[in-house]
């Protein structure tokens, strides 16, 4: 099981959606809490999870990589299953609705969030993926639940590969996900535009 921190919505947490917070490389379960609170103002449950892979024995991640942007697909598959199992267990113990989970992931966290979409295309109610890459190029998801997905890339981000992102968009769209992909004038870092887009997307879809 992964380490986590759960913060219940102020009212009726059992009925509210839950944001699954997935940090970038080197982060932990608290990393995205402030941004998530800013986005949801106590109306939504927040579940921050800590990746349990250590790079060089030190840096937290959700799955192993072999080099910059080169993923260990076997490990990614295994960690995705493990994360989904944790999510199911925590939903039972904390009493939130598993059918109302929206992933909010940045960078490495966006990539495992995307792997959930690919491996479990019926599970998430939606996903906001900041600075993502196509996680599992060989995994064509079965029919999805049609959940909305927001992807934000940085135009000058060294991890941003336009062809890879086109393939990602096509793969998600053909599974029935409702994809919105925005390319922002930024690098790998998050910007105010990522927040604004996420806020508008949440308001439109939830
Ligand atoms: C990844 O490993 O998921 C990406 O390369 C981004 C990152 O460095 O976390």
Concise synopsis of the structure shown:
The chain has a single domain, classed as Rossmann fold. Helices cover 33% and strands 24% of the residues.
Strand order of the largest sheet: 1-3-2-8-9-10-11
State the major sheet. Answer: 7 strands, mixed
Instruction: Identify the CATH architecture.
Output: 3-Layer(aba) Sandwich
Radius of gyration: 15 Å
The assigned structural class equals alpha/beta
Taken together, the total number of domains comes to 1
What ions, cofactors and ligands are bound?
D-malate
Q: Which ranges are low-confidence, i.e. pLDDT below 50, for 5 or more consecutive residues?
A: none
How would you portray this structure in words?
With 206 residues, the protein is of the alpha/beta class. The protein has helices at residues 33-40, 73-94, 108-119, 162-174, 192-205, and strands spanning 4-7, 18-22, 45-49, 53-55, 59-61, 65-67, 70-71, 101-106, 126-130, 148-154, 178-184. The strands form 3 sheets. It has a 7-stranded mixed beta sheet with strand order 1-3-2-8-9-10-11, with helices on both faces. Strands 4-5 form a two-stranded antiparallel ribbon. The site of D-malate has 8 residues, from helix 3.
